[in-house]
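Re: the request from the purification team.
They wanted to know what the chain is likely to look like in 3D before they choose a buffer screen. I agreed to run a prediction and write the result into the notebook, where they can find it.
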Amino acid sequence: MAARLDALILCDFAQVREGLLFVQSGGLTRLMTRKLPATFNCHVAMLVAVSPDVALDEHNVVMRIKHAPSATALATVKVDLHPPASTGGLMPGESRIVPVVVPLSTITFRSEGVHDLQVSIDDHLASDLSFHVSVPTS
């Protein structure tokens, strides 16, 4: 594959600064809320490795979130990776590492339970992760 997903992290906060990925409180597996529907101020952080032979090509990343038990789709987020105009700074054979951050604050979660997040790069499934949305009982 010309581009691959090297990291997929659900976290409290993430940002890209000067080409570097900053992740705070990564590895979330449970999102807690007092009531549903709910939104969460968390982020999905990704590192996409682009092989040197296609380092100047555009690539598309598609992230899909669904409620696993019902297979209800909640959101599809598309991210176009636009490469810089040159491969300057890369060593021969070195892949370009592209950090990507997607905020989840615009997605409304309506049900408790397992949710699946699937990521495709250039129309190929790259990775997935599952997390739980929960409402405490007391």
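For the purification team: The domain at 3-134 is CATH 2.60.40.2550 (Immunoglobulin-like).
Please add any questions underneath this entry.
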